[in-house]
Amino acid sequence: MTETLDIKITKTNKSRLEETDFSNLVFGRTFTDHMLVADYIDGDWKNFEIVPYGHILVSPAISSLHYGQSFFEGIKAYKHTDGKVSIFRPDKNAARFNKSAERLCMPTLPEDVFLQSLAAVVDIDRDWVPAQPGHSLYIRPFMFATDQFLGVQPSKNYKYMVLLCPVGPYFSKPLRVKVETYYTRAAEGGMGYAKSSGNYGGSMLPARKATEEGFDQLIWTDAKEHKYVEEMGAANVMFVLDGKLVTPLAQNTILDGVTRDTVITLAREMGVPVEERKVAVAEIIEGAKNGKLTDAFGAGTAATIAPVGSISLNGEEYTLIDPKEREFSQKVLRQLDAIRYGNVPDTHGWNYLV
Ligand code: PLP
Ligand code: COI
User: Fold this and answer.
1) Distance between CA atoms of 34 and 258, rounded to whole angstroms?
2) Residue 336: which domain range?
3) Are 109 and 97 within 8 A, CB to CB?
4) Which of 72, 243, 249, 300 lies 20 to 30 Å from 14, alpha-carbon distance?
5) Does the residue 322 lie in any domain?
6) For residue 35, which of 188, 183, 165, 144 has the smallest C-alpha distance?
């Protein structure tokens, strides 16, 4: 940690906390009282401020609106049984934040500045961190270009902001998932590994088509042949196949998920063999047919561990074993929750206390 970050704080004079219904939270709809804002001007980060949550004034010509120089992160803070608040593995997000920034020709943010900025705003709104099981405070850091200029070139000025949302479970039931064999999320040489806003914009039409067909999520496949599994919606996808945890390598076209890394680490500790490799759609379907596929789930910050109930390929649906009977994902979720809510020793140093 270098110097303490200088942050100007202006608190709200009317908190919305009392009027917020924490038993009916819709993901991403409820914002806390405050947000953090900073500017990148003349080659430097400055003007770090925590202000009441609200609208911001920007020019209609900012290049993030026109050319998509914009990206984000997703992180969660948890309230421990003893009342402490911690942020889960934010150092991993700091590193990925800068990978995204580099891919989009945007300025990086020093890791300690990123960590201190999150801690400062979470600290001010710590009473908003929900205490109910399965709930948390979703942290949304993001950066966007602010030059008023319609020429296609990297902006010189940027804004970095952090929003906070109290959230409950993202998915409420096992997912009916379709293997996407036409649309593509990312290709080699593209931006798949970055948390670039445009990746999400491009996913909306295929996702809507899948919803219209009755599915909850898509499994993205490789851009060239649509033969290999990549990700599942806004989460990494993981399988237990023949007793091994199998997941696509987080390279290039795939977001290197923090939850994915956490699950892999816990699996190894449980003695479950892990294979990070190319995963063919055909072997997953074969496993669903012959019973060797004993678990399948999405892994992500928002999604947590989201069980896949069935997988469809070219109109054929394969129902997987009942999620309640899945040994691996149940055990890993219990372990993950125990760590994040502070109920077991944090032997990996994953909880960043606020
Ligand atoms: N893949 C995509 C496309 C995502 O949006 C996310 C969510 O952040 C993930 C994977 C999972 O990453 P993480 O576990 O770091 O949230
Ligand atoms: C996250 O898990 O943080 C995500 O990015 C998912 C989000 C797009 C809802």
Assistant:
1) 26
2) 175-340
3) yes
4) 72
5) yes
6) 165
pTM: 0.97
Q: Is residue 347 part of a domain?
A: no
| CB-CB contact of 341 with 81 (8 Å) | yes
The domain that contains 194 carries what CATH number?
3.20.10.10
For ligand 1, which residues put their CB under 6 angstroms from it?
74, 231, 234-236, 255, 257-260, 300-301
Q: Are residues 64 and 108 in the same domain?
A: yes
Q: Going residue by residue through the chain (354 aa), what tens digit of pLDDT does each one get? A: 567 999 999 999 999 999 999 999 999 999 999 999 999 999 999 999 999 999 999 999 999 999 999 999 999 999 999 999 999 999 999 999 999 999 999 999 999 999 999 999 999 999 999 999 899 999 999 999 999 999 999 999 999 999 999 999 887 799 999 999 999 999 999 999 999 999 999 999 999 999 999 999 999 999 999 999 999 999 999 999 999 999 999 989 999 999 999 999 999 999 999 999 999 999 999 999 999 999 999 999 999 999 999 999 999 999 999 999 999 999 999 999 999 999 999 999 999 999
| Nearest CA owner, ligand 2 atom 8 | 234
Reported as a single tens digit per residue, the pLDDT across 198-226 is: 999 999 999 999 999 999 999 999 999 99
* Beta carbons of 301 and 267 less than 8 angstroms apart: no
Q: Are residues 121 and 239 in the same domain?
A: no
Question: Do 182 and 64 touch, CB atoms closer than 8 A?
Answer: no
State whether 158 and 139 are in the same domain.
yes
Residues 257 and 162 in one domain: no
Q: Which of 10, 53, 44 is nearest to 140 (CA)?
A: 53
**313 inside domain:** yes
Q: How far apart are the first and last CA of the chain?
A: 14
CA distance 260 to 76: 15
Q: Of 135, 168, 201, at which residue does a domain stop?
A: 168
- For a mutational test of ligand 2's pocket, the pick from 204, 301, 304, 305, i.e. the residue with the most ligand atoms closer than 8 A to its C-beta, is 301
What are the pocket residues of ligand 2 if the criterion is a CB atom closer than 6 Å to any ligand atom? Answer: 74, 200, 234, 300-302
Quick one: which atom of ligand 1 is closest to the CA of 93?
A: 15
Q: 141 and 240: one domain?
A: no
- In terms of domains, do 115 and 181 share one? no
